[in-house]
């Protein structure tokens, strides 16, 4: 059995792009001097490249330019109990993730500002960020815009596709319910 059977993987760019647009916050993974660095960065797609920005105080900023990176976009996960099905199954985890590997290059201030405006346009229909917003001028000295040139990508969508149609549909419902319940529990436990 291969690690990722074909029915759990996706290599179609249109499908991957749609997933990234729905779940734009990625784990950015890089390696420098025998240490692994991770950050959580939102990305937008522009001309088949991914655009993001990073705080210059972030330790990852020091080595990111010209680095190879991996991005993991997260669409959810859930433990799937055998108790939910009439047939005998084993426990499993279902998940939706996209992995992108590529190379980073830093941009200039104009590219940073353009990416901030484009990101806001794509993610927010209720607020329009102007290129001349005064906070951009203040913040641009503290953040660095960058692009990831995509070398490879694939989706890992394990949703019980190897089971019956009824099982597959039930597993999707369980994932949705699990996400909602766990998020509610976590949010209710936060203190301020």
TrEMBL record:
SUPFAM superfamilies: FMN-binding split barrel (SSF50475). This is Transcriptional regulator. PANTHER family: PROTEASE SYNTHASE AND SPORULATION PROTEIN PAI 2. It comes from Psychroflexus aurantiacus. Gene3D superfamilies: Electron Transport, Fmn-binding Protein, Chain A. It comes from the Bacteria. Coiled coil: none annotated.
């Amino acid at each position: 059995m291969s690690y990722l059977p074909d029915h759990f993987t996706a290599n179609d760019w249109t499908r991957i792009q749609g997933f990234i647009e729905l779940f734009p916050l990625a784990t950015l993974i890089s390696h420098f001097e025998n240490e692994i660095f991770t950050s959580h960065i939102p990305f937008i797609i522009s001309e088949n490249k991914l655009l993001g920005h990073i705080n210059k105080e972030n330790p990852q900023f020091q080595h990111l330019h010209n680095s190879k990176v991996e991005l993991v976009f997260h669409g959810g996960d859930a433990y799937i109990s055998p108790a939910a099905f009439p047939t005998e199954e084993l426990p499993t985890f279902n998940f939706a993730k996209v992995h992108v590997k590529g190379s980073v290059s830093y941009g200039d201030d104009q590219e940073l500002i353009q990416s901030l405006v484009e990101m806001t346009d794509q993610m927010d229909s209720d607020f329009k960020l102007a290129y001349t917003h005064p906070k951009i001028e203040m913040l641009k000295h503290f953040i660095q815009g960058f692009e990831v040139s995509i070398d490879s990508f694939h989706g890992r969508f394990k949703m019980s596709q190897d089971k019956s149609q009824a099982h597959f549909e039930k597993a999707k419902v369980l994932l949705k319910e699990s996400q909602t319940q766990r998020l509610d529990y976590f949010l209710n436990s936060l203190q301020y």
